[in-house]
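Hello K.,

You asked for the raw outputs rather than the summary table, so here they are, unedited. I folded two proteins back to back in the same session to keep the settings identical. This is the first:
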Amino acid sequence: MKKTMRIGTLSCIMMLTASMMLSACDTSTSSTGSQSTPAAAGDGNKQLATIKLVYPGSPQADEAKIEEAINQKLASTLNAKLDIMPIDWGQWENKINLMIASREPVDIIFTAQWNGHAINVSKGAFLPLNDDSLPKHGNLLKQYGKGITDSLDPIFLEGAKINGKNYGVPTNKELAAQGGVIYREDIAKELNLDMSKVKKIEDLEAVLSAVKEKKPELTPLFLRDGDNLNSHYFSQYDYLGDSTIPGVILKDDTSTKVVPKYELPRYKEIVNATRNLMKKGLVNKDAATTPLSGQDAMKAGNVFMITGSLKPGKDAEMASVIGLQGKLKQIDMTERTISTGETAGSMLGISSASADPAKAMQFINLLHTDKELNNLLNFGIEGTHYVKTSGDIIKAGPQYKGYSPGAAWQFGSQFLNYIWDNEDPKKWEQFRAFNKDAKKSPGLGFTFNAEPVKTEVAAAANIVKEFDPGLDTGSVEPDTVLPKYMEKLKASGQDKIIAEKQKQFDSYLSTKK
């Protein structure tokens, strides 16, 4: 059975005892010890380094089988083996923060601008990947990431930099973002709902009310913290970096003035509209606290609609992952935009507590270049979890439910991914067209460096975590709670943060004239 997450420094102490070679628990940004474990029988005296991969997602029943298949390949190519360590979405933030604070000796961690990336960088959680002066390891990207730099659009790496350094390797995927909803098309047809009328947030109430009346067993609209009508992909906020740091501009506007998001008219419109839906019983009551992802909620079969950051074929892709082929449809509800947040919206960072950063970077590079490995991690074992129908087109295999992580957007290059038989075979051409004419945010290319105000940022982040889930999901009354939110943010040093963000942004813009 798969191991559960090892949190805390105990594992570090155990590993130190196990081998005199270890130097674990070193708090420097260089190697923190060895994670080498005895090689399998037949490997003689070789030691296989263990690469620990941590990402948000549901643990899979056949995870151990996938590890075994991957490790047969890695033993010969990297002299390493992989330990897949998923954390359920609902526990992700707390567990990853504890892991970082305790310097758990893991190697690769999923990270994103919308998920505290800049704050974690300021805490020293990740190694800089393009730093020639990095002690012991040097420029990891240059030494071991040629496949990445050869295949990834330069805008990804450039946009993901913080103070000139890359602390994560972006997934090679769609670059633009577009907010919208995914709904059960089969149920909409059954209820004779005209979904073509849904174009704006205010259009949702009529169809959701009809679902509630005619299908009371269903949750009309499933929302959660981070995936709701006020998420960055829906509201078009550009945080100019980490989304937990106050101060935004709008991706679909031209203004370069950084303001608190609650001062924007659309913020109040969205939180009030969401509160209205909640009060009418159209949103799940546990929206502010649910550990479920939207995908998992839809998979359960009792949800009509979820929100999402859309891309071409997102509905068909999700339907294949959760076993609802032909039953999902998406509605695009915002303009397509590109911001720095999209370039850094899905990355794999190398932990500063990694025992072997070189091996970690080599593995990330393989996810961008090795088609067999990429698809093995994403879809499982051919003939078991999926079956090829022709070329790169696949359908569910006999043990499909044993391994269906639905996390392809997190790992390496999506352009290496197989395509489900219910998806458009020209999916990747559609991705490129999707990126082509998207509106560019005035902040594209800029990332705020929080170091000068890191004390204020840490305080503000805790307040954001306290208030955003309730306000964004309609779980609390904006007229009552928002004034308290504003007061606490100001007391935390919000004005100082925004002034520093504006100063840096203005300096960046002056170089573009």
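The second followed immediately with the same parameters:
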Amino acid sequence: MGAESMCGIVGFTTAAGHDPAAAKRTAQAIADLIRHRGPDGEGYYADAYAALGHRRLSIIDLAGGGQPMFNEDGTLVVVFNGEIYNYKALHAELTARGHTFATDSDTEVLLHGYEAWGGDLPKHLRGMFAFALWDRTAETLFCARDLFGIKPLYYYKKGDVLLFASEIKAFLAHPAFEKRLNEARLPDWLSMEYLPDDETMFLGVYELPPAHTLTWHDGRLTTRRYAAPRFRARRGRSLGAWAEKIGQTLAESADAHRIADVAVGCFLSGGVDSSLVTRETARSQPNVQCFSVGYAEGSYSELPAARAAARALGVPLTETTVTAAEFFAANRAIQWYLDEPMPNPAEVPLYFLCKTARQRVKVVLSGEGADELFGGYPLYRQAVWAERWQALPRSLRRGLAAALPGCGFLRRGAQPRWQRCARANYVFETAQERDKYLKRPSNTPSPARRCKPYFDAVRGLDEPTALQWVDLQTWLPRDILRKADRMSMAHSLELRVPFLDRRVLAVALGLPRRYRCTGRRGKIALRAAAARRLPGVLAANPKRGFPVPLADWLCQDEYYKRVRTKFTGPVAERFFDTAALCALLDAHRAGKTNAMTKLWAFYCFIEWYEVYFVEEFPPIL
């Protein structure tokens, strides 16, 4: 048996009390809105003060594993989404301490673990998880989210009522929920494509951050961080020794992630990260089904690289090709599944990739997290050069920046570290540039200032390492993992990420910077590990990301007109300067600028707003 809990969870509690029968019906209604997360089963619990719901995707222990689950005397009840990889060791430890188990599931380990360790339970867990545990005796709700934020959890408080769910859309069916746009944060979202803190684009809805717990008692809510990983380089180990350690640790993590009673597949792009995950999976499952996605436009497609990797690894590959028509047609449904607007074009091919994979498997392993842990992004290499630039006298840096105002590198080099963070100005380089498209002037702090607390927390780290740490708190959970979770769950597919494991993290945190990135190379130690475990041609493959032909498509008449229609519609008229939007679109079409990222951000926000605030509910997808 084991981890049977891939699913969606929902619930609510009120200090004033409610009718249990009516509360159970409400729990079912809100769970129905995230049925896609768990189409194989459902379960509900309600008493006078709380209600919990669970939608199940059966992966392990297919015949059993129902939730909500109770402890022996029925005083604790839990709903759980995820997988605890060390549950067998915890089961043995808790049994030795006198706890009696009725099942061999990781869900029950949460119940007995809470009895033993209380709020420190998450510190003992190795896995990906979001769970909510109701203590009937103490009338206390305890929730927790995993170290990286792989599994989502949101909450909403109104008076003495608290709602929680795996996805925000579930709240729409609760009578206490008041749906309102968090318009004050629209400027931040436009700059970054996500909000870097616990707020969401729904006013009053918050995301429980990674590595945090939430406690609700007698109408009072508290959150607490239970783990704060730090980079601390370990000296005295050669690159070869690090490569061997990384390879062994990833292999063990892949084995843990592969456990299931249903078919497991892999996403394979041809890059180092996915090739390593596929190789380690294929050791125990030689004909593992692999999946890749691309376009008819060959220069943007990763399919040739994926084919070469599949041949080298000796695994079967299923290919998916996305057309421009499919790309645009799917975006509306994608924005619904995402909960919050997200204009990262990579989410669209990922949506189709997951759709194809689900036709053959219920679980896939993917390579997310390798860049953040091991120094793969060009952003980190640029930070090496920025750090060297910072060694020059400040007066010289400022003078050169003033003399050459058009040079972004020099301008940023004269700024503090937090202010030159490229993630904060991902879409628009400056707030002034962004604000000329807004209907109403922005009076909010700059996006970079929103990120300043993260940089303040790691002042002692070198610049590339500080950027890695900030990415682990912001970019990874709020962009990379959010779209991975939503696009896979949209098709009832469980996506697992072997790089994002406590043991792999422990290795990465000890890796000296020179083995992570230099000014010219990234993922140095990880590539050295790949050279030992992969065919040579794969270990040297460059990073490609998830390229899309969207910039070209926006110049074609059909899609130009489609976007322009949105840019002159009522939603655009409410929030933006429509003339400025159309001028930007025309400049892109004329080849005067590449405004793909900006144009897609506006377009996605408009479609998202229409789905959640204009059209009938629930939307017809």
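The two ends are 36 Å apart (CA to CA).

Happy to rerun anything if the numbers look odd on your end.

Regards,
P.
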